[in-house]
Amino acid sequence: MTELCDLPATTLRRMIGDKRISPVDLLDSCVARIDAVNPALNAFVVMCLEDARRDAAEKADQVAKGDALPPLHGLPVGMKESYHLKGMATTQGFPPWKDRIAQQDDCTTAAVRQSGAVIVGKTNIPELLQGMTSKNRLFGLTRNAYDTNVSCLGSSGGSAVAVSASMVPLASGSDTGGSIRGPAAANGICGMRPSPGVVPHDDHIHAFNPTSIRGPMARTVADTQLFLAGMVGGGPDPYDHSVTPEDVLKVRAGDLSSLRVAVSTDLGFVNVNDEIRAAFEAKIERIEGLFKSVTRCDPPLGEINRAYWTLRPMKFIPGLAEMYKQDPPSVTEYKRLDLRRAYAQSVEDVAWAQAEQTHTFRRLQDFYRDYDLLIVPGHQNPLPTLAEIEAKEKAMAEENDRHGIDEYDFSVDEGRATINGAFTLTGAPVVTMTAGRGPTGMPFGLNLIGAYKSDLDLLSFGLALEQMTADDAEYGRILPDLAALEAMSASDAAAE
Question: In sequence order, what DSSP letters do the residues of 159-192 get, joined into one string?
């Protein structure tokens, strides 16, 4: 039976506004689902239900009084653990930071509250926001709702799983190398990495570095649009585009038949699994007749992969450098790898990478004069199993132990190229949308990539494609087996 928590956020918001449901009843439905499946999945790791119940009751009173209602009024939301919520710890799953209590909401959380959302709790992440799945020493492992033996990816894995299992209709994410895009594709949901500044970010140590972006995660493109409208409130972000909630909400499905679309399976340099490649081509063949034209071509990204791996470690140095230099194993193995690279490279390397980033940005501006949209796969490989991840992390630790803190083999970077990391430095907005099943039966996603600052047009394209494929069984969102997850949760509870 369909529960309230299973309905789209857009539907729920209309029902609240029409007084057909109460925010209190909706919260109760979400909490019941969390109680039923979260023990098996561990998507939510910290709850704030007392505050949520009070907020839901206040939202219900405002509806009864006929007050003007903001975009997210009464909708339960999960917030990624790395966001600051006043009075709660912001740990990033890292034991040395377990007592970092936020003195106030960050600007994104404040915007979400101002937009009427009911914050239910915090969702899990990889330790220090980096890893092949969402696992850390403080909160443990989050499991994929479709197959609990494979990765849910990260770093917004907890948010993706919470949404995929309908614990909440909306959850926040953040993205540097694909931390919204990858988990969205891997968990059968949608997400958006906006252009820098569309969702203001006041907790970035390098505010003028456009790599770390916050954005919405939901089950449909329409729900993603709604959540984005609730996240765009102002903040001290140097890239602030002053996009308003009204700007986002007025976006409607565009005319796909007018679009010149570029399609790239591997961007010209990413090692894409053969089965993923074939599945992507089959998905494209089903939709290419919807567009004015479809051209198979690679975007002019130059040496952006090398530039990405050169610049990526810079953001970790302010918070972790001293700890790393004094005791390298005190940070995670992933951070040891990146910091080894940071200390092995030169200022000339960094200067080159920044110049290459600029050159690539300008080349893409020319590219998007010829094309309105680029479509690429949501990820490049089948999801790794937890056992495979454990083996890779063990090998990573052994490699780190063999090298000094400033030793790194730069030749390995070519093989590290990813579909998602390649676009991080470009500032391009990306909508990740569901596209049915992949070759292993797991969810499959597409990345729709637009030109810098074309966020509203990109949403329009995503809405249209979602509508045009709504009746296509090959594109429909697949659902996790909730009954099996409930049984697993009950078994876990009995074992305790």
Answer: HHHHHHTTS-SEEEEEESSSTTHHHHHHTT-EEE
CATH 1.10.150.20 describes domain 4-254+456-495: no
Phi and psi at residue 394, to the nearest 5°:
-65, -45
- DSSP track, 1-39: ---GGGS-HHHHHHHHHTTSS-HHHHHHHHHHHHHHHHH
Structure-block tokens of residue 462: 């995503």
The reported pTM is 0.98
Per-residue pLDDT tens over the stretch 300-319: 999 999 999 999 999 999 99
Pick the CATH number of 260-421 from 3.65.10.10, 3.40.50.300, 3.60.20.10, 3.90.1300.10: 3.90.1300.10
pLDDT lower than 70: segments of the chain: none
Work out the number of other CB atoms within 10 angstroms of the CB of residue 186: 30
Is 225 within 8 Å of 260 (Cβ atoms)? no
Q: Which amino acid is at 418?
A: T
| Structural tokens at position 387 | 């056992």
